[in-house]
């Protein structure tokens, strides 16, 4: 090879080396600026999304409470039974062995003229025991003169919405329809408190009562649910009603005007949140609605993590289906004002707050570690989360000491809710399946699992007394080995027995939630990076979130079944 060729190769290598250096310098110069712009835009979006809660709080406390009419204002005291409107009570249920009898009894005991009250038990049960329990209960109340019947479909098409459609075919003459899920317990005066509001305003499509809970203090999981739902019912729903904005029907503990259901197009079966779908369509047709803050209705919170997640999956994926279905109709309707249209748009897309929370942990926190100039954006996002989510605890004041843990729980559920939102947006098959939330019966006993165990097996002392009596009668000399005596002593210790039972039930129902597990590992790594780069504030925040993701990954929360 000649010298010219060698020099040519050397010059080419020098050019390549110099070009690489120039490119690396350019990237190092431009990358921090790009990261800063991305972080600023994301922080602004993040603050706007979380400002939604502050707006609801302002509406709740700054706007005047609307008055409610009384029963005597719409029905004079001198009226007869025929002056009362006919009300149909619809009780959709499926395999409700634990709660079926309780809700039927509560519905039959409602304070309303019995000749003007019709009760429909819309039973989709496939369990023979549940069918037998419901039939016996309905027959008993029918013998007492209550207008009550069981209606069963040959199929479960349309799930709850399909059941309600089937029931309406038998009550076309009824003016008002009251709906209760199986795990609700209305008080006797529910109708006398709720009916005046819908009777007083002919443009009112439905009235919605506030939920309260029978097992709010059972476990950490039910306490977190109580704080979430109290903010929804005590702040969001009431604030929207005071501001005359759209608020949704919650699926139960409400009274609908039959003509409003028909005017809105009836129940639809193409989403898993038929309540939001119908109430939004009625709102777009110009109907109003009333939220009854002072009318309460007890219900059971899902006590197990699996039951809670199945419920949340439906509640989060369903609104995405409704958004795809009605977003154009919101834009085209002329029956509501522009401000109400904008609020309806926001109402349907606000579930993307979960995506923002996940992206904040996955992207914003690492970027703030690698690019110190963007650290302020990450701190703003962190404190915004702590403040806006923490204010939710104000509406469950007796559990305000759980506020910080509640923030971590909401962040821990963000990944699951994000997956549910994407599933509903892309209309996956999992978002089209209706999974009935398991019911466990009404109880205020926090040790219900131990109670069930004691009911199933008589106590150790009773067993010992039985053995002694039999031994005395038959004069049997029972000899035990040293090892068997030790095991018997251990078995008789109730504390150890309870621990053994806990571990047995825990490992029988063990399930690893893989997404949360992988997220927890990633957050532990980010925690190490944060402390290693002298950012302890961010490190502590991420570490707390990592612990919550770990707890949710292994299911160590709620009741074990």
Automatic annotation (TrEMBL):
<feature type="transmembrane region" description="Helical">
    <location>
        <begin position="345"/>
        <end position="364"/>
    </location>
</feature>
<keyword id="KW-0808">Transferase</keyword>
<feature type="transmembrane region" description="Helical">
    <location>
        <begin position="512"/>
        <end position="531"/>
    </location>
</feature>
<feature type="transmembrane region" description="Helical">
    <location>
        <begin position="403"/>
        <end position="426"/>
    </location>
</feature>
<dbReference type="InterPro" id="IPR029044">
    <property type="entry name" value="Nucleotide-diphossugar_trans"/>
</dbReference>
<keyword id="KW-0812">Transmembrane</keyword>
<dbReference type="GO" id="GO:0016757">
    <property type="term" value="F:glycosyltransferase activity"/>
</dbReference>
<comment type="function">
    <text>Probable mannan synthase which consists of a 4-beta-mannosyltransferase activity on mannan using GDP-mannose. The beta-1,4-mannan product is the backbone for galactomannan synthesis by galactomannan galactosyltransferase. Galactomannan is a noncellulosic polysaccharides of plant cell wall.</text>
</comment>
<dbReference type="InterPro" id="IPR001173">
    <property type="entry name" value="Glyco_trans_2-like"/>
</dbReference>
<keyword id="KW-0472">Membrane</keyword>
<feature type="transmembrane region" description="Helical">
    <location>
        <begin position="537"/>
        <end position="557"/>
    </location>
</feature>
<keyword id="KW-1133">Transmembrane helix</keyword>
<feature type="transmembrane region" description="Helical">
    <location>
        <begin position="376"/>
        <end position="397"/>
    </location>
</feature>
<dbReference type="GO" id="GO:0000139">
    <property type="term" value="C:Golgi membrane"/>
</dbReference>
<keyword id="KW-0333">Golgi apparatus</keyword>
<keyword id="KW-0328">Glycosyltransferase</keyword>
<feature type="domain" description="Glycosyltransferase 2-like">
    <location>
        <begin position="176"/>
        <end position="376"/>
    </location>
</feature>
<protein>
    <recommendedName>
        <fullName>Glucomannan synthase</fullName>
    </recommendedName>
</protein>
<dbReference type="GO" id="GO:0071555">
    <property type="term" value="P:cell wall organization"/>
</dbReference>
<keyword id="KW-0961">Cell wall biogenesis/degradation</keyword>
<dbReference type="Pfam" id="PF13632">
    <property type="entry name" value="Glyco_trans_2_3"/>
</dbReference>
